Amino acid sequence: MAERLRPGRVLLAAGLLVLVGYAAISALMYARQRDLVYHPGHTRVGTEATDFELHSDGIRLRGWRVNPGRNDALVYFGGNAERIEAWREPFAQWFGHRTVYLVAYRGYGASEGEPGEEAQRADALALYDEVRRRHPDGDIGVVGRSLGSGVAAWVASRRPVDRLALVTPFDGLAEVGQAHYPWLPVRLLMDERYPSAEYLRGYQGRVLVLRAGRDQVVPPGNTDRLLAALPRPPRVVDFPDSGHNDLSDDPRYGEALAGFMR
């Protein structure tokens, strides 16, 4: 007769299976984290559709320039699947006294390369420096939305930014991932971190935060921890009935950004 399995061995085997499955899921999360963070597929456009080009570390970044010839400037960093060219007309109206630069991340729009945090940080500073060269005596404001709030926070920590507007921002991307997957060691697994709270601990400029009350992408706690890390109280505009992606449909969205950047 076949030997009966002892309960202890059954429990041990079950535990090993769970452990192996957990390790496999963690490994998959680590290997595919960039696919989870970056979504450039629906943003692609032909190079002929753009009117601005910037070279950064051998890569050509392309985008659009709105209201050329103004003394002051504004740089916009969009979300992880955002078609930034859709903002050309609204931004032309909201920021009529500023030249606005909408430049796609690597791998987005008509820009070359592959997205990644280290490259994004370098590209963002290269863009700021080019804008400063074009506007030597003007103010440069920065707006970052969602993923772009992490990029904008980095720029504000490394370059003079008098006005910084953050839309649905977070304390850190790894912390957001941990909130969504509390049963995984996301903080240990993620290389794409964008630690905005760390970047902005010493920032002394003016900050506007636009927060969605029904945000299911960036949990409210992550935004609150960013606010708590700022050395100066920011101006906060709440959109209690809006979600992560539709708060910009509210007329107060443009009013808040335009008023802050005047």
Automatic annotation (TrEMBL):
MF term (GO), any: hydrolase activity
InterPro entries referenced in this protein's UniProt entry, alphabetically: AB_hydrolase_1 (IPR000073), AB_hydrolase_fold (IPR029058)
Keyword set, alphabetical order: Hydrolase
Highest taxon of source: Bacteria
Cell division recorded as keyword: no
Name assigned to this protein: Alpha/beta hydrolase
Transmembrane segments: none
Residue intervals of the AB hydrolase-1 domain: 73-176
UniProt keyword Hydrolase present: yes
A UniProt-annotated Pfam family: Abhydrolase_1
